[in-house]
Amino acid sequence: MVEAERAANEARLLAEAAARTAGEEARYRAAEAEEERKRTAPVQEQAERDTQAAQEQSKKLQEAADKEKRRAIAAQEAANASKKVAEEQVKAANAAKEEAERKLKKGIQPVVIPTPEEVSAAKRKVQYREDLFHFAVAGVAGGGKSSLINAFRGLLNKDMGAAATGVTETTLTMARLPDPNAEYPLVWYDIPGAGTLKIPDWQYFNTQGLYVFDGIIVLFDNRFTMTDIAILVNCRRFKIPTYIVRSKADQHI
């Protein structure tokens, strides 16, 4: 009986000791686990932050790539549209060229409208002023334009300041001749005669910048030329007052 009790006590003591040992081991393991958790928590949190940042960066890169792709598609579409417009313009230009050549072969003169830049340049060339009236005298070479201008200005051909005159054409460049009477706000222009310049009849009006004048006198002697007709047609187109004057009438009667 005593032996049994002693054995039971020893067994109980052993069990209690084992329980204490197991409890201490469990607490030790738990402490180690907590320490490990505390040690690895920042790393885990950093890893999570890095993962999130990587995901956000990947998303941004994907959005940028998608945006660039859309931009490239839009640029390609714009380039295709520009190419199509350019091709249509080239086609239209070629058609216009062919039409102009066809008309030229038939003797139909093309209509050439000066650009705003050309108008400004022509006004600078003639020293255009808004407070003056600018009169151009144009016509065939040797038709008497300079003599007519001298007469309008109240000068004889031999007077000082008169426009140069001669049997043949003496005006090879445009001459600006203000009226000597200050009461008359007129400026006369002696235009080089047709035939003295290597300019086609239908280009004479634009080349000489006649579209900037306030009035034009077309002077002819014994017959009208294609240049005279071209000047009159363009004057009507630009609504410029035009006067037709015949010179040397006494020589042709």
Automatic annotation (TrEMBL):
User: Entry's InterPro entries?
Assistant: G_IRG_dom, Immunity-related_GTPase-like, P-loop_NTPase
Give the protein name, as stated in the record. Answer: Interferon-inducible GTPase-domain-containing protein
Q: Can you name a GO cellular component term? A: membrane
What protein family does this chain belong to?
Belongs to the TRAFAC class dynamin-like GTPase superfamily. IRG family.
Q: Where is the composition biased (Basic and acidic residues)?
A: 22-39, 46-68
Pfam families in the record, alphabetically? IIGP
Q: Where is this region: Disordered?
A: 20-68
User: Sorted alphabetically, which SUPFAM superfamilies does this protein's record hold?
Assistant: P-loop containing nucleoside triphosphate hydrolases
Q: Which residues form the IRG-type G domain?
A: 131-253
Which superkingdom does the taxonomy of this entry point to?
Answer: Eukaryota
